[in-house]
Amino acid sequence: MRRNPLADRPVHVIGIGLHRYQRMSSTTYVELGLTAVREALADAGIAWGRVEAAYTGSALLGMAVSRLMLSRLGTTGIPMQQVENASASGSTAVAMAALEVASGRSDVVLALGIDKPEDWRVAPRKAGIPSLAGDAVVPFTSFALMANRYMQASGATVEQLAKVAVKNHANGARNPYAQRQQVRTLDEVLEDPISGCLTRLQCCPVGEGAAAVIVASADAVEELGLDPRRCPRILSSVSASQGFYEPGADTDAALTADTTRAALDQAGITPEDIDVLEVHDAFSIEELLYVEAMGLCGPGEAAGLLEAGAFDIGGTCAVSPSGGLLAMGHPLGPTGTGQIAEIARQLRGEAGDRQQPGAGHGVAHMVGIGAVCVVHVLAAQGA
Fold first, then answer.
1. What distance in Å separates the CA atoms of residue 275 and residue 256, rounded to the nearest whole number?
2. I need a surface site. Which of 3, 37, 107, 158 has the fewest CB within 10 A?
3. Nearest-CA neighbor of 111 among 50, 175, 46, 33?
4. 126 belongs to a structural domain
5. Which pTM does this prediction carry?
């Protein structure tokens, strides 16, 4: 098992902030980012001058994003680094910020996720290694095929699959930062087919937004006079990329299983200890695949548990109480950072009418093109 670098020098989330995820607009990325950072600073009750380093996660903005934006808060001369890791860019920014604190190099570090995904010319198209499928299989078709295979193997129904989106849209309707804030009925979710059994409301919207997380050492929490109950600890942070799997295996699910197992082992908890889970549900089928891969239930059991309310707020484990990618939205760079913000809010007990009662442990999970996977485990004070 890999050593946990966060074990010796605890890392805490002390501030969170977001700019609402939204459709593409004329809002500049600078305005998006500064809104989130200022909210995180206010949430932590600290000034910009106390931040010692910054990591900006962005998938598609291009180079030189950070200083142009963050210098508006004051030219303090701190080191700034930009992180790109596809959909897991924001998650990776948090991972790097946490590692910076755990290493002792800094005590207070900003992780910011931001994007305005206007240009989708991703690296695989420039790699000189053509895909056998070419452009014939787009993401929603690929996941529709996964959904069909899952339903055939598990006996799950089209309606049960759609209920993932019903749940997450209901959660998003209670989240002021979500791009989609409307409760949807099962009939509405089943309208507007896109590919196979997947419909428009079972596919995530890709817009723009920002999410900021400030992490700090235990020494800084004490020095700044912060309330420890509002500073959940990051118990573990594990990143991995695709390995070799058996023919026919679902790569993202297998990668999720491996990464989550390592993260839980390092945190010293089991799947049964997870109270809140933010999962990469760009398509409704992903939630079912990933909760099984993460060990919350056995193969083929997720659809039945979902229908029984096990993954609702107030259930055994609240899955995507933010609304998930399906309702919160998926602006790429901010998505993983926003997950950490939601988990922190839940562990503080500050999530309002989407609060999971007694939340003690939370997990944030993101996958990205590559394939890559990042999993964070957080704990409330005293958990």
1. 18
2. 3
3. 33
4. no
5. 0.95
